[in-house]
Amino acid sequence: MATRLDEDLEARMRELGRAAREAQRRLAVAPRAAKDAALRRAAAELRTRCHHLIAVNAEDLAEAEARGLGKAVLDRLMLDEKRVEAIARSLEEIAELPDPVGTELARWMRPNGLDIARVRVPLGVIGIVYESRPNVTADAGGLCLKAGNAAILRGGSESFRSSRAILACLHAGLEAAGLPLAAIQAVPTTDRAAVGHLLKMNDFVDVIVPRGGKSLIERVYAESRIPVLAHLEGNCHTYLHESADLDMAVAVTLNAKLRRTGICGATETLLCDRAAAPRLLPPVLDALIRRGCEIRGCPETLALEPRAVPASEQDWSTEYLDAILAVKVVAGLEEAIAHIERYGSHHTEAIIARDRNAAETFLARVDSAIVLHNASTQFADGGEFGMGAEIGIATGRLHARGPVGVEQLTTFKYVVRGNGQCRPG
Amino acid sequence: MATRLDEDLEARMRELGRAAREAQRRLAVAPRAAKDAALRRAAAELRTRCHHLIAVNAEDLAEAEARGLGKAVLDRLMLDEKRVEAIARSLEEIAELPDPVGTELARWMRPNGLDIARVRVPLGVIGIVYESRPNVTADAGGLCLKAGNAAILRGGSESFRSSRAILACLHAGLEAAGLPLAAIQAVPTTDRAAVGHLLKMNDFVDVIVPRGGKSLIERVYAESRIPVLAHLEGNCHTYLHESADLDMAVAVTLNAKLRRTGICGATETLLCDRAAAPRLLPPVLDALIRRGCEIRGCPETLALEPRAVPASEQDWSTEYLDAILAVKVVAGLEEAIAHIERYGSHHTEAIIARDRNAAETFLARVDSAIVLHNASTQFADGGEFGMGAEIGIATGRLHARGPVGVEQLTTFKYVVRGNGQCRPG
Description:
Two copies of one chain form a homodimer.
Chain A: H1 2-28, H2 32-48, H3 50-66, H4 71-77, H5 81-96, E1 104-109, E2 115-122, E3 125-130, H6 135-146, E4 150-154, H7 160-176, E5 184-186, H8 193-198, E6 207-211, H9 214-223, E7 236-240, H10 246-258, E8 267-273, H11 277-290, E9 294-297, H12 299-304, E10 309-310, E11 324-330, H13 333-343, E12 348-352, H14 356-365, E13 370-375, E14 392-394, E15 402-404, E16 410-421
Helix pairs in contact in A: 2-5, 2-7, 3-7, 5-6, 6-7, 10-11
């Protein structure tokens, strides 16, 4: 009987995939006006149904509380008027972005008269697997739609009712704009096996974007037969070069670590040149400690800051997502780069330095999606980059690296125009 | 004992991967002059050692003949003076290409003064799994080197000696240029299990590029834990719209099918509008048949060309790589697009039409890596596109679509320059 049920689930998932593929063919050639109208109408529906959304969300919250889920999960799950308005506004902002589809990325003429253009087209069908934040339903669905992609959304079971209510608003938008409702579909069950089927439907799904904790991302990487755009973790580094300005070192390190500790661009390890450690570390660490940050230091750090506790080998590869910072004194630029290469996650790293040569060496040699000079690692964000909303940050090397926004949700094709050319030889 | 041997092989493969990763860090920052010097010196070595290469190749050929391998395999395997010169020249042409590494793809300033650049960087370590052509050793090694990547080459067992001798020339070039020899390595065994290990080394290898027959590509897709750039097959279509010029239809179809039947851009199915079938098909098919092409037609095709044989359902999805053409009469543009969507492989498709609107609809709606108007599908080639040498053609949607040349063997990172910016909020 279990097998029978699982076969049913697989068949239902494949039906979802087939519908998404069909819808995507229509979306691929949908005019900008229709896509933007759908987004704006969905935003209007969210505002109209705001109190309904909050009521539905209260049911999710009550169940989550009864299941004993933690305060952080409950906070991510919660919708109030302000959050519903933010979701609606975000859809309108996506509508305001330029339409990437059809853009000519390059165009050139060959000596034989062939006119070759590289033209942006949608990626196709995108599967999004995420956890408790119900706003991802609107953000991911909206970004996919804008880039002409169909989305298959699989949200967390905690937010099942809230996500379904948000999806209804998106569908109202699609319907009003004359676009297929299958452009944005949700997996209609909280059965975890559904994700397993989704990750294997490489005939219907072109890319998987997982959003959530490390265990979710690990599962997706391990099981997916479909390319994945994601980051497993953001073990980000800030490196204080011996030439660093003290005030800047204090301000940027504080921001990089403590502005928000739970985001992937938060700095998790601070490296500091030995030559400048007595000048830089005591004031930087004092400022952090006074704001409630725990310091786990190497022996040299401990000698400079007695309130620090000893770091273990494990600390260098830990993404705390909390008010904890690992601190290591290094011999110089080479050791800093080597440390990041060994322990980092290729997400975001910053150097604080007055010395431009040292900074350019760091920027050239550190192999991360984002490298910064004299700025906070917390800028690792599509919005801060001016790319509009993002669906996540990717640390893989292929296709999209760094923030994944509307442009990164497209691919391209070559359009060749001739007048009867035949290939010689 | 088998287990012990396999563990040894895995350890040796991982050692190869580790060395490649280390070499790649150095290559990533190697100046253009060093990379080009290595390529030119390797070309010179190939010419100097030409007679040695031919002698070594003769041993491969003798063994392949003794193993009873077919004429086509022997031809692909064979090296003579002309082919060695072509391999050398190809390395020099790669040296002449611009260096993609370090190119700024975009650069913009944010209102807060952050200066953001998207800069091309190498992809990393590339595993290339290929069959009997020994020239792939030089082409793939050379292209990877030019883009700052390390290559791990796994050629066919038939060309083992020839590939090793070509690799020695590449190593002479690397050595003369002061670059690490591990920039281009070959798997030192013909054991098929080595490929299995390579495909799972996702900590050391960033991309796999398989080149060869369908069964090789299928194996790589099925086993790889690493992203793959490839095409499984090129079931390419030429579509004769009712507005097609007759002379152009004859010339382009002949070229698309018969110029070379064994390349992936060769047309395998001809579609023709019903309204123009009596005008177009008889002369087009007659020209093909007179040049030795077999025609497998739908019933309407058979009625117009009695020498054709009936096509089966299977024919619409077959990549013949031979002088055989499947021919189908369709109601019009919509049916042509639907047929390609159902049976095609998203590689290359062409429309022959005088009607520009019909052509633009076809170009917009057919979802293939390359779409052409009034030109032969045999132009599906990096060289013909003006991209220089190519390592293959990709039909996946992510990262590289169409010809994979030097540029497609790179990725990018974001380089952000500030003056102490902290993220607000």
